[in-house]
Design a protein that fits this description.
α2 (about 65-75) runs parallel beside α11 (about 345-355) and α7 (about 190-205) packs across α8. β10 and β11 (about 235-240) form a beta hairpin. The chain has helices at about 5, 65-75, 90-100, 120-125, 135-140, 150-155, 190-205, 240-255, 270-285, 300-310, 345-355; strands spanning about 45-50, 55, 60, 80, 110, 130, 150, 180-185, 220-225, 230, 235-240, 260-265, 295-300, 315-320, 340-345. The relative contact order is 0.16. By secondary structure, the chain is of the alpha/beta class. The chain folds into two domains: about 5-110 and about 265-370, HAD superfamily/HAD-like (Rossmann fold, 3-Layer(aba) Sandwich), CATH 3.40.50; about 115-265, 3-Layer(aba) Sandwich (Rossmann fold). It has a six-stranded parallel beta sheet, sandwiched between helices. Strands 7-6-8-9-12 form a five-stranded parallel beta sheet, with helices on both faces. Bound molecules: magnesium ion. Magnesium ion (MG) binds near residues 299 and 300.
Length: about 375
């Protein structure tokens, strides 16, 4: 099995060939990392959540920028891993660079739908029904999908799918008479009511809506599992994952069987295999040692910590207290998804990790020495 096949779980490996990693490759001019004159080289990397770790809404978390710049100065592989989406990695890297005040490259950012880039070429060549925000076609094309029909386009060609509101301003490129091979919901769809109907139609069929089958045969991928998210409103807002909850319920009511769906985003396994692949590529390009440890820093026990804890022995979960998790009396860790390390904030966590890795010599601060 090659590295790209390993990206996908066994039930998907038949779809996997050699996902395109070329967009993540960079010609590094880095020498073998030698900090403070040591001959040791780095054999670990960091996977960092954004909301609640580096940012809180639009506000920077104190010393987050300094923590990132410390990692950069030591040329330690790191990446941002967020369940957000709806934008390309290039757009997200620019957004995070502006908000946090230090630059990130696109290959250092993984959003919920990034694993789609690594799907096999044969999978990308089959007709994909793609649903999501208005830029979904461009997003899917950026991942190398070659045969896409969006919900708007399919609806415009087949108005009986949703006869009440047929889109009139859609540029129809072809008739799309062939079988739909797979369905991808690449983040929150724009038109829930219509799109719930169309997805149910397709996944209940043999690839031609209306031709009902007894068992689901059309693979469904869904990116953006968060049921709700924190925003400026005093109570959380419904996230992309709320669409999936509706879809699962409607599918069950219609068929009496549970929906089969591969979910992309934390805490799901495919997301961590993709992150490991991206981080290992970065480490290789920086002439680092093979990664022995991957520190996953996050604020959400049920996603960041649960996902890292389940991702394998190389992963070390690190829970910070600047977001969802709050330490309470007599309870210094999350009871349901305990982290390997609990730290007040990202900057302290970075120092703790650096101090614990004997291969990176230097004077790092302890928790009590850092005052925020
Ligand atoms: Mg978070």
């Amino acid at each position: 099995m090659n590295a790209s096949e390993a990206l996908l779980p066994s039930n998907l490996r038949s779809m996997a060939l050699d996902g395109d990693r070329s967009n993540f490759r960079r010609n590094s001019t880095s020498e073998i990392i030698s900090v403070d004159g040591s001959n040791d080289i780095v054999d670990f990397g960091l996977v960092i959540d954004v909301d609640g770790v580096l940012l809180r809404g639009n506000s920077k978390i104190p010393n987050a920028k300094e923590g990132i710049e410390l990692l950069k100065s030591l040329r330690i592989p790191f990446m941002l891993l967020t369940n957000g989406g709806g934008k390309t990695e290039v757009e997200m890297a620019e957004k995070f660079s502006n908000k946090i005040g230090t630059s990130f490259e696109d290959f250092q950012v993984q959003v919920s739908h990034t694993p789609l880039r690594f799907m096999s070429e044969s999978f990308k060549n089959g007709l994909t029904l793609a649903l999501g925000p208005p830029n979904t076609r461009a997003l899917m094309e950026s991942y190398g999908f070659k045969n896409i029909v969006t919900a708007d386009e399919y609806h415009a060609v087949y108005p009986n799918l949703w006869p009440d509101e047929v889109p009139t301003n859609v540029e129809i490129q072809k008739e799309w008479t062939e079988r739909i091979n797979n369905v991808v919901v690449a983040y929150t769809p724009s038109n829930w009511y219509r799109d719930l109907q169309i997805v149910c139609d397709v996944v209940r069929s043999d690839g031609y809506p209306g031709n009902l089958v007894e068992h689901q045969s059309i693979p469904l991928f869904f990116a953006g599992p968060d049921f709700e998210y924190a925003a400026e409103m005093s109570v959380p807002r419904l996230g992309a994952g709320a669409f999936l909850k509706c879809l699962e319920h409607l599918f069950y009511l219609s068929t009496g069987t549970p929906l089969s769906c591969t979910v992309l985003g934390k805490p799901h396994k495919l997301t961590y295999e993709c992150a490991m692949n991206i981080l290992e590529t970065q480490a290789y390009n920086q002439n680092c040692q093979p990664l022995q440890k991957i520190y996953a820093i996050g604020d959400n026990p049920s996603t960041d910590i649960a996902g890292a804890n389940a991702a394998g022995s190389r992963w070390v979960s690190v829970l910070v207290e600047t977001g969802l998790f709050k330490r309470v009396a007599n309870q210094n860790n999350d009871p349901n998804h305990p982290a390997k390390i609990v730290s007040p904030d990202f900057y302290t966590a970075v120092h703790h990790i650096l101090a614990s890795r004997k291969k990176v010599p230097g004077k790092y601060l302890t928790e009590s020495e850092i005052s925020l």
